Amino acid sequence: MARLLIIEDHPLFREALENAIRVALPDAELREATSIEAAIGLLSSPPRFDLILLDLSTPGTTGLSGVIRMRKSAPRTPILVVSAHQDPRLVAHVLALGVAGYVSKSASKEQLADAINSVLRGDVHVPASTRVAPARRTRLPAQDLLKRLHDLTPQQLRVLDQIRCGLQNKQIAYELGISETTVKVHVSDILRKLQVASRTQAIIEMEKLDFVNLIGEARASAEDAASLTSAGTTGARGAPPA
Q: Is the domain of 118 the same as that of 70?
């Protein structure tokens, strides 16, 4: 019997996901979490899940940090991201984190069921409408940040989320149930791994992973590339004969 974890805070869409799962796997065992913290709590006790369905906008996460935290907490469990955001380059960022698939919230119940079955078979599921043509793929600055975030431990990612919320060390210690000294050690390691000199710079770096910034950055990159191509073509056509 397959065991699936749904991480979604919206009751209506959570129900829609459950219905889609029942189409694909009538006998599946389902567990639900409405936040990243609750999901991590469920992952801490056996048995393991066969698939995680994750909403990118789940409470307790900003931008792609939720995907990163779930990958750290369940590195061997495939993750199917379910999101209202459909920009192809955002999808590319998410897939770069090692998730097993990406599906739109606007997909039908049958399409969601197909995506679930595809991932459980070991395939990587990406809707055709969000695929990025190889010729148009570009390297975006946020990808370097994603690599650095991979070096953080699950606890350091939690501390980083608290820093981003503006909490000081004493408050973080209280929220996470650890000593202030331990928080200080984590903060030092976080700044070193992110290659920044202060908490403020760390927050600025994390802003790069917000959906709006990622999509805007991708579009600007695409426009720049198109502008350069256009300029090159115009220059070639307008050049005098040798």
A: yes
Phi, psi of 82 (to 5 degrees): -120, 115
Q: Report d(CA 14, CA 109) in Å as an integer.
A: 12
**92 and 57 co-located in one domain:** yes
pTM: 0.72
Whether 148 and 41 map to the same domain: the answer is no
**CATH value at residue 120:** 3.40.50.2300
Range of the domain at 152: 141-207
Half-sphere exposure of residue 52: CA atoms within 13 angstroms, side-chain side: 30
Phi, psi (deg, nearest 5) at residue 98: 95, 20
Question: Tens of pLDDT along the chain (242 residues)?
Answer: 899 999 999 998 899 889 889 888 999 999 999 998 899 889 887 778 999 999 988 876 767 888 888 888 888 899 999 988 887 878 888 888 889 999 988 888 888 899 999 999 999 998 776 655 443 444 445 667 777 888 888 889 889 988 988 899 999 999 999 999 999 999 999 999 999 999 999 988 887 777 656 655 545 444 444 444 444 544 544 544 43
What is the domain-level CATH number for residue 199?
1.10.10.10
